[in-house]
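Morning!

This is the sequence you dropped in the shared folder:
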Amino acid sequence: MTEALLLGEGDEIGAAELTRRVAETVRVLRKNRGYSLDDLAQRSGVSRASLSQIETAKTNPTISILWKIAAALGVPFAQLLGEERPERVRILRRADQQVLRSTDGRMESRPLMPAGASPTVEAYELRLQPRSISVSEPHAKGTTETIVVLVGALRLRVADEVFELNAGDSVYFHADVAHAYENPGRVEARYHNVITYAR
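The structure's back. C-alpha cells below.
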C-alpha cells in the first residue's frame, strides 16, 4: 500500500508547510553526514531523482519512503517532519496535531508526542479501517515497537510470523524486519504504537 503524507482533507497550507519542513530537514541531515544525493540513494534504496524532488519540496513523499530515508540517516521518523524544541511541559491539542493518512485514506497515524521530544522514543495513535492492511518497511537496526490494541482487532505480521490480537492485548516486537498491520474486523480498529530506537 502506498502511503502519502496527507494532512486533513483541504488542509493545503498545512500540507505545504509539512513538505517544506521535510525538504529542509532531509537536506540538512544529509549534508551534516557528508552524504551526496547518490550516497543517500544507495543507503536508502530511494532513487536520486526522488531524493532531489523531496529536498526541493517538489513532491509530497510517502510514509514508506520517509521510513527508508530515516533508517538510512539513522534518525527517528518524526525528526524528518521537522524537529521542534519542546518546552518543559507541552500539551498537544488534538486540533493542532498533524494527522498523516494513507493515500487511500484507510490508515491514519497521529503523533502523541512533540517532534524531537525524545531522540529514541515516538508514540502514535493508529486507526485502521475494516479489512485493511498497512505494510511497513524494516526500520533501523535495533528498532522495536510496542502496540496496544484499544479498539477492534489486529493481525500483526512480523517477517514470516502472524499474531492475532484483540482489544486490551499488547505486543512488543523487533521492527527491523518487514512487518504489516492488518485489521481483519468489520469495524475501525485503533491502536497505540510506541516506537523505540536503538541508542
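Headline: The chain has two domains: 12-81, 120-196.

More detail when I'm at my desk.
O.
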